[in-house]
Design a protein that fits this description.
Length: about 300
């Protein structure tokens, strides 16, 4: 019998979350895989459509493992809940207490957090040379935690995180202070924003305000000044009220689109072992969000 060459490996990826119908992740991942000549399918596993409560995420993870999925992206509202069902967790995900990427290896499930590496790369490419001695992060939820971790990892001197919920702030400050040094991260109330910004080089906004469903801005424009850089994690729309006000004041700005793309870049590398073309994925994201059907990468 003639030797037939081994078929190239195929990858099956899933996205677990609630209300993920408009997610751009399938398109972003599959287009890049096509460009790389990989066999790659990216399926949505929507808890709402499946009629599963978030606490059933373990069942869905197990189903994916048994049916031969290569890996999963995990999004709202199960980034924390999924952790109890994993066999191993990367350091950054363990510190953050949140996972957005799961890789199956040897029948076991390993968790990673590429939101934080995605924001870190976004800052390193989008805010080159910006001062980082003191940064304020507004919002201590899932995105805010990833942002604070990323800022400390890329060398910000100190980060002050402010939230309406003191329990969330304290938990985050405790976890990240223990990892990066207690002198580098502090917490406060949302009402401390004006005083905190007076001493800051930059601001990262990480609350849901400014999203299409939650219009407005959590930062009074009067607090913005030209020497303050301003980043937003919100990317639906890319041009939030906050970023528009910041640009009008002459601030350097960074939108949430790059974080969304770079987390996908890092997940793709984990799923395939192949280095994706990040610039190509950024251009694809721009094309996908340019039209009227703008939607987020994950949900
Ligand atoms: P979340 O619900 O986990 O956290 C939001 C936090 O903001 C909460 O702790 C809440 O108390 C706090 N908050 C709300 N209003 C506030 C205010 N006025 N002042 C201070 N704190 C306030 O939400 P999340 O998952 O962190 O998502 C936040 C935003 O980040 C969403 O718009 C989401 O789409 C976006 N996001 C973007 C990316 C990306 O890749 N760009 C990734 C994840 C999330």
């Amino acid at each position: 019998m003639p030797n037939t060459p081994e078929p190239p490996p195929s990858r099956l990826i899933g996205l677990i979350g609630a209300g993920i119908g408009p997610s751009l992740s399938p398109a972003l991942h599959e287009r890049e895989a096509d460009e790389q000549g990989l066999r790659y399918l990216y399926r949505r596993l929507d808890l709402n459509e499946l009629g599963l409560a978030p606490d059933r995420v373990g069942d869905l993870l197990e189903a994916a493992r048994l049916t031969g999925y290569t890996g999963l992206n995990i999004t709202h509202p199960v980034k924390q809940l999924v952790m109890a069902h994993l066999d191993g967790v990367a350091e950054e995900a363990s510190v953050l207490g949140a996972v957005n990427t799961v890789l199956f290896k040897g029948g076991k499930a390993f968790g990673y957090n590429t939101d934080t590496s995605g924001f870190a790369r976004s800052v390193m490419t989008g805010l080159v040379g910006a001062p980082m001695d003191a940064v304020v992060v507004l919002g201590a939820g899932g995105a805010g935690a990833a942002v604070v971790h990323a800022l400390l990892a890329v060398g910000a001197g100190s980060v002050r995180v402010l939230d309406l919920d003191p329990v969330r702030t304290d938990r985050l400050v405790d976890a990240l202070g223990g990892h990066f040094g207690r002198d580098r991260v502090s917490g406060g109330a949302a009402a401390d924003l004006e005083a905190a910004l007076a001493e800051a080089d930059g601001l990262v906004h990480a609350t849901p305000t400014g999203m299409r469903e939650h219009p407005g801005t959590a930062v009074p424009p009067a607090l913005l000044r030209p020497d303050l850089w301003v980043a937003d994690v919100v990317y639906r729309p890319l041009e939030t009220e906050l970023l528009a006000a910041a640009r009008a004041r002459g601030c350097r700005t960074l939108d949430g689109g790059k974080m969304a793309v770079f987390q996908a870049v890092d997940s793709f590398r984990l799923f395939t072992g192949v280095e994706p073309d990040a610039d190509r994925m950024l251009r694809h994201f721009d094309a996908l969000t340019a039209g009227p059907k703008e939607a987020p990468a994950h949900a």
